[in-house]
Amino acid sequence: MKIIKDKYLRRRGGHTKILDILCKNCANKLFVYQKDGTGQLKRCYFNRIMTDNIQLKENEFNCPQCKEKIGFGITHTDKRLAIKLLRGKISKYENNSYRRQGMFGKRDNS
């Protein structure tokens, strides 16, 4: 896993956090996400999801373990695909292991 450094990260002040996203109902770990900038986590962009076990079925994202609806697929105004999260359906914890592992990638100038 590498930190993605691109125009979106730079627009949000260059601050990033790696978050473990869990189902609030059953505490199943759903994915690892790179959150850029400050503010609430309202949507998760697919290009920032750092694990590859994400599956949308009929445009819905459900917990694979308890089948609770977590969110649904959207295309944001900047044409990036994302999961719009439903309020109160996830827990998130900052994952600091990336700092110890040196997961900073090269800058993408796109």
| Strand order of the biggest β-sheet | 4-7-6-5
Order of helices and strands: EHEEEEEEEHE
Q: What fraction of residues sit in β-strands?
A: 35-45%
Number of strands: 9
What value does the average pLDDT take? Answer: 80
Helical segment count: 2
Query: Pairing-aware structural class of the strands and helices?
Result: mainly beta
Main sheet? Answer: 4 strands, antiparallel
Q: Which ranges are low-confidence, i.e. pLDDT below 50, for 5 or more consecutive residues?
A: 102-110
Query: How much helix, percentage-wise, in residues?
Result: under 10%
User: What is the 3D shape?
Assistant: globular
Tell me the number of structural domains. 1
End-to-end Cα distance, whole Å, is 19 Å
Report the radius of gyration as a whole number of Å. 14 Å
Can I get a quick summary?
This protein is mainly β and 110 residues long. It has helices at residues 7-11, 97-101, and strands spanning 3-5, 16-23, 29-36, 43-45, 60-62, 69-75, 81-85, 90-94, 104-107.
Describe this structure in words.
β5 (60-62) and β6 (69-75) form a beta hairpin. The protein contains two helices and nine strands; from the N terminus they run βαβββββββαβ. Helix content is 9%, strand content 42%. The protein has one domain. It has helices spanning 7-11, 97-101; strands at residues 3-5, 16-23, 29-36, 43-45, 60-62, 69-75, 81-85, 90-94, 104-107. A four-stranded antiparallel β-sheet has the order 4-7-6-5, with no helix packed on it. A three-stranded antiparallel β-sheet has the order 3-2-8, with no helix packed on it. The two termini are 19 Å apart. It has 110 residues and is mainly beta.
